[in-house]
């Protein structure tokens, strides 16, 4: 079976780190590159985090630093959830994996332009890099096979009652991507909140006994602690890996076509993904929105992904 070619655009971030882990060693995915954006922490920190994860796992995938601030609005980070480094918890050895000299936006443009239109863009952070690439070179847009993002919600946000973090952090970028006309699959909080990483899940994965499972456990123990402090949950929702799990096995998520508008004009609801769940507006659907997830199957996919790494 031919692998799905992807560029993973992320802002590591504990859940981004797990997404990298699953994507980098899957027999269903060809990870062409990791592009990094500011989001969960500053760009200086998120690009280090991406390289640390790759180095720890022995993943030979290039990492490119991209945009350090949103297209228009002021920068925001999620230090209350992901800590001072953006990846608090694990202790990594000295970093030797180098950052690519090319800017992430340039890499996205060049790679898409040279492609046969068979590359999926996966975004698990603010969509700044992809939107900037679209604005810089509109000819890439028809080259994008599809966009799969973790972001938004058709119910409640997690930064404001209306908005989810990845969207509100750069709603203008999300607007550019959602109005690009490319196929979009949106994994929002409505499903990612259904895969809470309870302590028994952490224990289950840790028992695998390899470097990937140790990283997972170290990440999740910190992540679950801050999620409980902020939201009161006993387990942290593993948002970002849902994108990769769906690419590995589409049956894990139930999708519903909806017309989606990104609110970039209001104050109280800035950053909301307005999803016409019932089709009241009579407009054509612009995205396939995740509405349910098979949590047991999701954790099986995560476990299988961790087991693909060596014992060393």
TrEMBL record:
Pfam families: IU_nuc_hydro (PF01156)
Gene Ontology biological-process annotations: purine nucleoside catabolic process
An MF annotation (GO) of this entry: uridine nucleosidase activity
UniProt keyword list: Glycosidase, Hydrolase
SUPFAM superfamilies hit by this protein: Nucleoside hydrolase
Domain of life, per lineage: Bacteria
Residue span(s) of domain Inosine/uridine-preferring nucleoside hydrolase: 6-300
Any single Gene Ontology cellular-component annotation: cytosol
Protein name per UniProt: Ribonucleoside hydrolase
UniProt organism field: Clostridium fessum
């Amino acid at each position: 079976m031919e692998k799905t070619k992807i560029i993973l655009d992320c802002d590591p971030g504990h859940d981004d780190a797990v997404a990298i882990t699953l994507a980098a060693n899957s027999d269903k995915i060809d990870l062409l590159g990791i592009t990094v954006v500011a989001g969960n922490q500053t760009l200086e920190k998120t690009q280090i985090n991406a390289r640390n994860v790759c180095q720890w796992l022995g993943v030979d995938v290039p990492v490119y630093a991209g945009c350090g601030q949103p297209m228009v609005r002021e920068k925001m980070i999620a230090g209350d959830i992901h800590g001072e480094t953006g990846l608090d918890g694990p202790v990594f050895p000295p970093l030797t994996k180098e950052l690519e000299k090319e800017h992430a936006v340039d890499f996205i443009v060049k790679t898409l332009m040279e492609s046969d239109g068979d590359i999926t863009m996966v975004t698990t952070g603010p969509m700044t890099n992809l939107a900037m690439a679209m604005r810089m070179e509109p000819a890439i847009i028809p080259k994008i096979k599809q966009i799969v993002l973790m972001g938004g919600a058709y119910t409640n946000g997690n930064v404001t009652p209306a908005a989810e973090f990845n969207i509100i952090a750069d709603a203008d970028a999300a607007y550019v991507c959602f109005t690009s006309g490319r196929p979009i699959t949106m994994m929002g909080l409505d499903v990612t909140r259904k895969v809470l990483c309870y302590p028994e899940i952490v224990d289950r994965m840790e028992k695998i006994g390899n470097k990937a499972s140790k990283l997972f456990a170290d990440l999740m123990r910190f992540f679950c602690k801050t999620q409980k402090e902020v939201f009161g949950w006993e387990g942290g929702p593993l948002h970002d890996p849902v994108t990769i799990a769906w690419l590995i096995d589409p049956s894990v998520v139930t999708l519903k076509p909806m017309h989606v508008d990104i609110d970039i004009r209001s104050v109280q609801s800035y950053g909301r993904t307005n999803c016409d769940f019932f089709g009241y507006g009579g407009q054509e659907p612009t995205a396939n929105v995740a509405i349910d997830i098979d949590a047991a199957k999701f954790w099986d996919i995560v476990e299988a992904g961790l087991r693909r790494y060596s014992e060393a």
